[in-house]
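We read letters as residues; the fold follows as tokens. Both lines appear below.
***
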Amino acid sequence: MKLLAILLITWIDGSQSGYNVSKRPQGLFSVVMADAAVGDEVIYHVGPHAAGPHKKEAFITYSDGKCTLYQRRVGDGLFEYIAKKREAK
């Protein structure tokens, strides 16, 4: 699965470590989160509101205490919806 994740993920440009799965198939979010290091960001959707195929997986991961969810404005009315991996409890 790790090779599949590496082949399908788009790295975020810039200084922060992370992945963008917003335009990738459902199910990839969990694969990427499992392989991500603590502090890595996974963009699971880009749009005016939280949606997309990874929204449910992101919320479940958050509910399990494995990530923090937040949004970052990237344009007028446009946001990146992000899950940041946390330390295991």
Notes: The first strand starts at residue 10 and ends at 11. The chain has one domain: 2-85.
